[in-house]
Amino acid sequence: MTFELFVALRYLLARRKQAFISLISLISTLGVAVGVMALVVALALMTGLQGELRDRILGATAHVYVWKSGGIEDYHPEVDTLRGVAGVVGAGPAILGRALISTERADAFISLKGIDPALEAEVTDLERTMLRGGLDQLVPASEDEAPGILVGRNLAEQLGVGVGDTATLVTPQGTLTPMGMIPRARRVRIAGVYSLGLYEFDAAYGFVSLDFARILMGKAAPDLIQLRVADVDGAPAVAARIGRELGSSYVTQDWTEMNQQLFSALWLEKMAISITIGLIVMVAALNIIASLVLLVMEKSRDIAILKTMGTSSRRVMTIFMLQGLVIGVVGTAVGAGLGLALCWVLDTYRLIRIPMDVYQVAYVPFVVLPRDFIVVIVSAVAICFLATLYPSRQASRLDPVQALRYE
């Protein structure tokens, strides 16, 4: 142990008449620990919430949407062509529309999506999240059987239906009659219930077969082709590559464009929370300054004696800098450890439940990213180090003659 560190620790652990200074040092250490712990938990909360929303959105929707000017007459060759683009791992057609679904219990407006049951599993997680029924039951087994529809868990509860029950589907695209335009109404069979984990989809989406969607919407071809890519972060690059390789007739939109406002808001909220809670560490740094200033005043006689014995001003300055650093490092280590433990408990046991219809997820996930964790630790130690500069510099400038004259 070096001479400077020995003296610094001796001052920190002072007893008897210097006990008040030790108490202030303890409070400073606790302040740093609380600030670091709060910052770790806050960043983990925002990171977990953002990641959970992203994963669920990407599981419920495609990564890239492709439109073609002039329409898509036969989607099979288009699917094969798009599968050949580097980075694309799955493709499937879709028809989008709106409809009213009615049962004896309730009515609900839903977003209707026509899909190819054989290809949808390549694009979304719909098949994997089926609670009852399946995509293969969308197509009726016989002419007498009604076409199938897949509904979300929340929508099924609202309508009071289960697999095998029937409902009425009404679409805005109607049939022209002498009495005017009459909306199309078709009887459908509940072919399955899914749970994608997003309230927006589980409560307001219905999936039907592509052929049935053509009849309901009065369309001869799919609206677009959905794509799934190997790297979700590389979706913008894949979308740009499609336009370059296949021509300007292909128009693309990736998931980052469609959800840009949501994730921008989450990022700004994460930054705002980090800055706000980071002020706790700043307050703790002010406590470090106060404790070191009091210690310099209390130990002015000791400093004078050390200087008269040959201790240089640089070594005196190092003593007090090390004292502040010890407070910062110990407080940061304790706070970081408690923050990690608290995040693990909260995430493992899912202790914080939130309304799913508001936040899209049922509980608050906590995810600590190594990068965020390192930034918090380095920032806290750096702030504590900067807090030691002024008191340490004042201690090194102390004149031994003036300090001993009044003792």
Helix and strand arrangement:
Blueprint: H1 3-12, H2 19-60, E1 64-68, H3 75-83, E2 88-102, E3 107-115, H4 117-120, E4 130-133, E5 148-152, H5 153-159, E6 166-177, E7 180-194, H6 199-202, E8 205-209, H7 210-217, E9 224-229, H8 235-246, E10 250-254, H9 255-258, H10 260-298, H11 300-308, H12 313-348, H13 356-359, H14 370-396, H15 400-405
Parallel strand pairs: 3-8, 5-7
Antiparallel strand pairs: 1-9, 1-10, 2-3, 2-6, 2-9, 4-7, 5-8, 6-7
Summarize the model shown:
The protein folds into 2 domains: 3-57 and 262-405, no CATH class; 71-248, no CATH class. It contains 15 helices and 10 strands.
Written account of the structure:
The protein is an alpha+beta fold. It folds into two domains: 3-57 and 262-405, no CATH class; 71-248, no CATH class. It has 15 helices and ten strands. It has helices at residues 3-12, 19-60, 75-83, 117-120, 153-159, 199-202, 210-217, 235-246, 255-258, 260-298, 300-308, 313-348, 356-359, 370-396, 400-405, and strands spanning 64-68, 88-102, 107-115, 130-133, 148-152, 166-177, 180-194, 205-209, 224-229, 250-254. It has a six-stranded mixed β-barrel with strand order 2-3-8-5-7-6. A hairpin with a 2-residue loop joins strand 6 (166-177) and strand 7 (180-194). Helix 2 packs antiparallel against helix 10 (260-298), helix 2 (19-60) packs antiparallel against helix 14 and helix 12 packs antiparallel against helix 14 (370-396). It is elongated. The two termini are 31 Å apart. The model has no long low-confidence stretch (mean pLDDT 90).
